[in-house]
Structures are given as structure tokens and as C-alpha cells.
Amino acid sequence: VSVLNCQSLSPPSPGAEMRGADLARGLTDLADRVKPSAELERQGNLVLDRVLDAVRRRAKVPPQRVAKVGSMGKRTAIAAKLDYDCVLFAPEGADLPALLTDVEDILALEFGIDAERKGDRTVSFAYKGFSFDFLASAAVREDPEAQIAELIRRQDDALKAGLSEATVLFMKNQPGFVHQLARLLKFWSATVSVPGFFHGRSYSMELFAALAGREEAADMLRGFRIALARLRDVRELRAVWHTFYTKEEAARYAAQTPLLLDPADPANNLLAPARLEGYVALGRYAAETLARLAALERGELPGGWLDVFAPQPRLWDCLAHTPVVSSFLVSAARPGQVVQPTGRLQRPACYPFEVELIARALFALVAAQCEGDGVAGTQRQVEHGLEKLFGAGNCNCSPSTQSFDAKDAVAALPAAPGQHFLVGFDVQRNAGFLPEHASWYEARDARPSPYWERSYAPRVLVP
What is the pTM of this model? Predict the structure, then answer.
């Protein structure tokens, strides 16, 4: 994955002032590095084609057409989170829940995949290291734009998955700068944690990038600051696009403030009361990142980009269980390829999502550094990331008699093609856990059951 193969701007030395142009180049470089590699996209597309071919052959009522939507369809995905979203357009009048039941059966029979059903509209599954969401809608028109217009007119909740195609067309009409900025904002969003706030968050980063693109078309630092400022002041935001609906159609829904009206659906305000507090929390983190950027520009952040993108809030405060600092074991690994950062709990010492969270946070901090190519350079990046996360000063990265199998948990981080890094550690209860972060555990399945009692699909490509 190209995110770990960087030969560009290095973090500033302690006390060195970074000028705006240097910062802008560094952010542009980061936005390019976090993009999935062409080879990884090729592999994912092959896996998707294989699954869709089986669905077309074996479904009782096969879809008339399939639209690849989501971040991969819009080309705004980041390597830390590779999800393929597809809309299956069935003939009008077809039983959409029955189509998704067919998909579940086909996945189980043909690929041995235990898919997760989310209501009547989505089937989610992991296969060959990639994550997929299949949604169902009806093909009410042949032309995609005519289809979108008709779905907006109908406002039928059962068919709204079909409007996802409009988000792809919307982003297709945005300049390349907005796509870069969207990836940078998604990367930043992956470094901050808001309990229970997931739905629509990635898409909203694209819209904040498009908003910033109205004011800036070249300078990544200024564009990043504009987008973060919009998030910081989210309670006052009012933003509407008229790509697929008229001002008159939007006016029926646009009386609210704050307002971030979905370009694909005038009835969908992404800042509706049910989601607003999540954005307000993101806004607080955006204000902190703006302050960090200003400090970096003044030469007051010794850690450079590592300090700018350090996780918010501190993981040490938020996790009920944390790694034993002296237990880290780090090594490059071959063969095989890790597609996404992933964590595996090897014994029931903590909750599985805690290990996943540590893996993703560590991967983000590795990506924020540029120390050169090669195993040694990447290993230093991993060590520096661990130090930033946990103040760990004694990671064992030398030849050792210790075994990863003996560790409570192992995080796997993508590196160069055919190579990944393993970070093993033991786990202890966190005496410094702050009670205000208990909601992290209310928002997830946090039952303390052993890992082997759970259905677990590691995001790893087995050679």
C-alpha cells in the first residue's frame, strides 16, 4: 500500500519554522499517500466482479444493473478503510428484501461467507480482505440521471438506496483538488473518535471538501483550514447544492439551521438534530487541529505531522483496556498482504473493538510520517507511532525469542506490496480510564466474551 512508501517532505526538526507553502506541499503529499494503491484497487475490483458474477448467475430475479457507489466509486477512499458499496437495481416491482436474501444465500453457498443483514436494505460482508455493502433499489428509469430525478420526486424510503448513485455523479463533477482534500479530511476523521457517530460521516467529509473547494482550488493548507473552520462553526452552517433538484424543491426542506443538504436528496439534512451533536464533537477536534497547524507553522510542534494528527481524544484516556507498554513486539512479516489495518484478539483480555481501534490509530500515525522507504524506515515509523499513542519507549524491534502467539493481541499494518508489519502486545485494565468515555462502550457490542465466541472476519489476504 502506497501509504507507507513515501519519499517526500520529512517532519520539521524541533524548533524549525514551516512556511505555509511547505505545509501545503506536505498536506498534498499526505492526501496522495493515503490513497489506496492501483494494485490494491485492481485486486478489490476483481473480488467484487467475482461476487457480482455469482449474484447475476444465481439470483432468482437478477439485478438489471449494478452501480458501484461509496468512496471507491467516487475515488475518495483512503487505505485505512476500504469499503465497496454497490447498489443492485432490480426490475421495478421486484421484491427487494427477497433479492438481498438471495444474495445472502449465494454468498454462503458459493463463497462460504457469513453475511450480516442490516434491515431490509443492506447486506454487509467481508471477503478476501475487503469489506462490502450491497444495497437494493428499483430500476425505475434506464438513464441514471432520469432515475435520480424520479427517485427524488417519489421520496420513497424503500428506494432511497438508489440515490447513492447521485453522490458518485456529484463527486465526478468536482475538480481533482476536491478529491484530494476529501481524502485528507477522511484521513483526519479517522484520527478522531466520536462514540456512535459513523453513519454519513465519510460522505460529509466529501461535502466539506466541496464547500472548501468553492473558495480554494489549489492550496491544500488553505483548503484544509477552510474545511476545518466550517466544521468548527458547524452550528451556523447552511449549505445547499442544486445539482439534482431545484431551489424550489430544496426550499421545502431548507428552513433548518444548521443545514448541510445532501446533494443527492433534498430531504436529507446531514446536520439533522439526531446527528448534530456528533458533528459538534468533530468541530471541537477541528478547532484543536487548526491550533496545531498554527503551532506547526510557528515551529512549536517538535513532532511535526505526528503531532498534528495525533489521535483525539487521547486513546489512553478512552480505552478501558490498554497495552502493557513494555510488552510491544514489532516485526515486518511476509508472505501475504494485509489489505487494511486490523487487530486480532488472541485471548479474552479486552474487547475486540479496542484492538481494532489501536490498529487504525497506529496506522494513521505511521501514514503521517515520511522517513523514507524500506523496512527500517517503516519500522521507525511504527515505533514513533507507538510512542505518540502510549509513550512507549521500549518496543522490542530487534531479533527476539518472544513470540507473537504469546501476546494477548496483534495489530497488522499494511506496508509495501506483499509485506506487512505486526505489532503484538499484552493488555491490562486501564487505571486511568475516564468515566466520561463510558459511552464508547455503550455504543458498541462490548460484552466481555472470548474472541473465539465471535464471528470474526480478518481483513487479510491469504496468499
Answer: 0.86
